[in-house]
Amino acid sequence: MVTVISLGGSIVAPEGADAKFLRDFAELVRGLLEEDKERRFIFVVGGGGPARAWQNAYREVCKGAISNEEADWIGIMATRLNAQLVKAVMAEWCFQEVVTDPTIAQPISGRVLVAAGWKPGFSSDNDAVLLAGRFNAKTVINLSNIEKVYTSDPKIDPHARPLDRISWDDFRAMVGDTWVPGTNVPFDPVASRHAQELGLKVICAAGKNLENLKNIIRGGDFIGTTIG
Prior knowledge:
Order of helices and strands: EHHEHHEHEEEEHHEHE
Largest sheet: 7 strands, mixed
Helix content: 40-55%
CATH superfamily: Acetylglutamate kinase-like
Number of domains: 1
């Protein structure tokens, strides 16, 4: 059984790397792998604070002459730095190099596979969807700094409501179809389209709540939003 987790950069490296989270996360992974000897994990790591900081610097310096492709490459390199750190933390279970092209990922030789951003045009969420399709996973767990998907941005709309479940059609109507580097949405619009086409389910949940993550993986009750 392969569990695919889109591990948001906002929890791995909100500003700099979060060593406490990584230590606790590794202990959770250890326990789950010992509990089920057939379980395999794929972690697709986002860019987080470093991606935003470097992209913002690029925008500030170049102002009107901004290239979305260049901004995307900056974010992709941040995902690769974060992913290399996660791979190092998972060294006893992860025997392969960080995957940077999900379309040619090799079978998992250990118990964990770590992936990063691939190419401009979408976020690491889309890489998670592609890997789920490649390894026949039915669900992607999307961990970020939000607990649930809301009907609108709660920072702007005081009437925004948290959702336990939403269809792909309704979710895509909220987030649109276009990816802009640095955009802060619950799940990348391009990834959402691909997930719907593959018939995947995506569970969005707060990444720092590791007990809740354990419940999701075990198939128990959890706090979060199911898309699909």
